[in-house]
Amino acid sequence: MNQITTDICIVGAGPVGLFAVFEAGLLKMRCHLIDYLPQPGGQLTEIYPKKPIYDIPGYPSVLAGELVDNLMEQIKPFNPTFTLGQRVETFEKLPNGDFKVTTGENTEVICKTVVIAAGLGCFEPRKPAAKNLETFEGKGVSYMILDPEKYRNRRVILAGGGDSALDWAIHLAPIVGELTLVHRSEEFRGAPDSVQKVYDLASSGKIRLILNSNITELRGNGVLKEVELMDKEKNASVIETDDLIPLFGLSPKLGPIADWGLNLDKNAIVVNTENFETNIPGVFAIGDINTYPGKLKLILCGFHEGALMAQKAHEYVYPDQKLSFKYTTVNGINPF
Fold first, then answer.
1. Model confidence over 12-27: pLDDT tens digits?
2. Other C-beta atoms lying within 10 Å of the C-beta of residue 304
3. Span 127-248 CATH architecture
4. Hey, where are the domains in the chain?
5. Do residues 114 and 127 lie in contact, with contact meaning Cβ atoms separated by under 8 Å?
6. Which of 83-97, 196-210, 245-259, 292-306 has the lowest mean pLDDT?
7. Contact by Cβ (8 Å): 144, 125
8. How many Cα atoms occupy the beta-carbon half-sphere of 166 within 13 Å?
9. CATH topology for 2-123+251-317?
10. Would you state the pLDDT for residue 332?
């Protein structure tokens, strides 16, 4: 059994969990991060490392993978440690007030506080109800885009009506040979600016936009060759393609965290808005995994939550010290 002792155990090594290391480090707290994925970065690394992100302050546009690299560089001075490729299974409070977090591979982390920054938790892609879909998974059907260059000059169908589908349609339009965006409705759920950009691309002939249609069947001989669509009037049409990428979002599951005795609202952990502590003192939840009145699921909001969390966590890690917080730009404070 591998046992690790630290100040804060962070469950989830996505962007919010990584930034929490920085905020904790400024207050002289050590962090150990656990993530089920084999590398840090969460969804940004696993699902869309080459996707541009537009709502990070100071970056008009930054690739998801680049943001993760920058966060890793930012926390390097604080020497965080990682347990990757393992899922947290159990959690308990010890008689001395510390917590013990244990993974499925019997890694134990003993800590003063626990911060849950697990994003959507354990997740699987939502799939369209199309005949032969699973037959072509890995043979033309993908549920995430890791490298846009893989689709250069190929015929690609994107399916979906949310931000992910819209953003990837905009990003892939100048790369692929032929791009089709299929949506089951005529109303998109994404940002208005992205919607307008997609309509502009469709008007200029750079993408084919098909609305009010569902994917019903996939065909091919070993690899995907055709996708059948059905519109609301039950009219069928067939599009020849090399790739189908359904972007219907993720189906979140809390996994073992659901049994930790936390107050839950559906699949989210209820926290206060003062410091994002849960109903269990010393246990915090930040980022997409939490919920509170007015919650916005944005990376920048998770960064803010991590900063306030660290202030409260300091009371558990250093109960005999009065926190005197200063800006990093004054009094000679330089974390690097």
1. 999 999 999 999 999 9
2. 15
3. 3-Layer(bba) Sandwich (3.50)
4. 2-123+251-317, 127-248
5. no
6. 245-259
7. yes
8. 18
9. FAD/NAD(P)-binding domain (3.50.50)
10. 43
